[in-house]
TrEMBL record:
GO terms for cellular component: cytoplasmic microtubule. This is TOG domain-containing protein. GO terms for molecular function: microtubule binding. PANTHER family: ARM REPEAT SUPERFAMILY PROTEIN (PTHR21567:SF65), CLASP (PTHR21567). GO terms for biological process: microtubule cytoskeleton organization. Transmembrane segments: none annotated. InterPro entries: ARM-like, ARM-type_fold.
Length: 131
């Protein structure tokens, strides 16, 4: 419960306009991604993809994208590929471009996990696709 409150506060602070506060909260979220295994973090972040605040959704999406990029196919399967694709699909229609970009990155990570030899092509294609 305490971790859930901390995560919500970090997402709220990271979505503020105040530069220093936002940067520090972003730094803390990135440290979480680096220090935690992706599966528990994804489970904690999942509810925030549908948060009422669009900036919180975008920050959660970016953090999820960063976590998914650390996972292999086995980890994605363990979390649930259908769930990942559903989250990405919902975020592709988000109002904020940061959330849409994070969704594209999630889909690219899934594609690269399934097609490791063609991963660099997927990265190039993702950059070429229109926003």
């Amino acid at each position: 419960m305490a971790f859930d409150n901390l995560l919500l506060q970090l997402l709220l602070k990271a979505s503020q306009d105040k530069g220093f506060v936002c940067e520090e909260a972003d730094r803390a979220l990135n440290a979480m991604v680096k220090s935690m295994t992706p599966l528990p973090l994804l489970n904690k972040l999942r509810p925030y993809v549908s948060h009422s605040n669009p900036r919180v959704r975008a920050k959660a999406a970016i953090t999820i994208s960063n976590s998914v990029s650390k996972m292999g196919l086995e980890g994605m399967n363990e979390f649930g590929l259908v769930l990942l694709v559903q989250m990405a699909a919902d975020l592709l229609n988000d109002r904020l471009p940061e959330a849409r970009e994070a969704a594209r990155n999630i889909v690219t990570c899934i594609y690269e996990a399934y097609n490791p030899k063609r991963g660099t092509e997927a990265g190039i294609m993702a950059k070429l696709l229109p926003n």
